[in-house]
Specification:
With 229 residues, this protein is of the alpha/beta class. It contains 9 helices and 6 strands. It has a 6-stranded parallel beta sheet with strand order 3-2-1-4-5-6.
């Protein structure tokens, strides 16, 4: 579960930024992980009761995607033992996530590495398993919703806002000071209208299997549109 190295100390970088869900992989990795964890460990009745009680006590949880993810993880992950969670994550990445990577995405990432571009994953899904996926592909930095504390342990707490939409852009700019990045020569890949806020930072924005709203914007702005399978 160790995160790839930070790159903020390097200068004048060309970035290759990949959204993950439905861009780098075929579908929703968070849903897959929750099902995988619950299938592996089972669901304790007490966890369901706590989830129901939290929703009844704080109905706003349903409106905050980050808090809702936290609640779902608390149901699926019945332990915070580091070794056990590391094994679970490894089995998930090996058994599920790697099989769902778009072949075209893996090829494109490999090309960017050959060009010495700095590769970034940016996603609303959790660092809990995205750090591992990023390490497998030699990604330089993973920007995601944070569920691991500074010691890389899962405690059931949420340590950042849900990394979606404008939060992706904010976190990217926080990690990548403008004077150190060749934004006009950098690349970005996303599939959704929620990715526009970071794609518009880049000189080479690519809409991958885009939803209708992103496709319209891509056509208006002359962004590349690609179909990956």
């Amino acid at each position: 579960m160790t995160a790839p190295n930070d790159f903020s100390s390097r200068e004048h970088l060309k970035l290759a930024i990949f959204d993950v869900d439905k861009t780098f992989v075929h579908g929703d990795s968070f849903k897959w992980f929750c099902w995988f964890a619950m299938s592996a460990k089972g669901i304790r009745l007490g966890s369901l009761w706590r989830f129901a009680a939290e929703i009844l006590t704080h109905p706003s949880v349903l409106l905050d995607a980050g808090l809702l993810k936290r609640s779902c993880l608390r149901i699926g992950l019945t332990t915070n033992d580091r070794a056990e969670l590391t094994a679970l994550v490894k089995n998930f990445v090996d058994g599920v996530l790697l099989k769902e990577v778009h072949l075209a995405a893996a090829d494109r990432l490999r090309w960017h590495k050959e060009q010495n571009h700095t590769v970034v994953f940016v996603s609303a899904s959790p660092d809990l398993y995205l750090n591992d996926l990023g390490s497998r592909f030699g990604v330089d930095c993973v920007i995601s919703t944070k569920f691991l504390n500074q010691e890389e342990n899962f405690t059931g707490d949420l340590f950042s806002a849900n990394c979606k939409g404008d939060e992706k852009r904010r976190r990217l700019l926080e990690a990548c000071p403008g004077s150190e990045i060749a934004w006009d020569q950098s690349y970005g890949y996303g599939n959704s209208i929620d990715d526009v806020s970071f794609l518009e930072l880049l000189g080479n924005a690519v809409a991958v299997n885009p939803d209708a709203k992103l496709r319209r914007i891509a056509l208006e702005r002359n962004w590349a549109i690609e179909s990956w399978s």
